[in-house]
Amino acid sequence: xxxxxxxxxxxxxxxxxxxxxxxxxxxxxxxxxxxxxxxxxxxxxxxxxxxxxxxxxxxxxxxxxxxxxxxxxxxxxxxxxxxxxxxxxxxxxxxxxxxxxxxxxxxxxxxxxxxxxxxxxxxxxxxxxxxxxxxxxx
Length: 138
What we know:
Blueprint: H1 2-7, H2 17-22, E1 33-35, E2 38-40, H3 46-50, H4 56-66, H5 81-120, E3 131-132, E4 136-137
Antiparallel strand pairs: 1-2, 3-4
Helix pairs in contact: 4-5
C-alpha cells in the first residue's frame, strides 16, 4: 500500500519543466527517485505512457477481480505479487478520486446552504392576519 500512496503523488499534469527533468520524465534525473525502497532512474509514471497497451490486461484483470474472478486458482494471496500490487495501486487511485468527488460535493452543498440562508433571510412570517403591536389584531 505504501507504493500506491507514493505513486499517487506523481501527477503529470502538475509537473513543470524543472520537475519533469528532476523526476526523470524527459531524461535521466540527476539523482535517483526513491519509491518504496527502490531507486528509480526515471519517473514511475513513464511506463504508463510508453506502453499503455501493456496495462490493458492489468485493468481487465482488475475488473475481473472486482467481479469475483481471479486469474490464477486460489484466493487473492495466491495471485501473482505484481497483480496484487497493481490492484492496490488501482484501488487507491479509485478511492482517492471518490474521496475528491465527495469533498467537492460536500463543498458545493455547503455553498448552496450558505447561499440559501443569505437569500432566504431566515424564517418566513406566519400565515394569517397581520399582527401589529403586542397581541392586538387590526
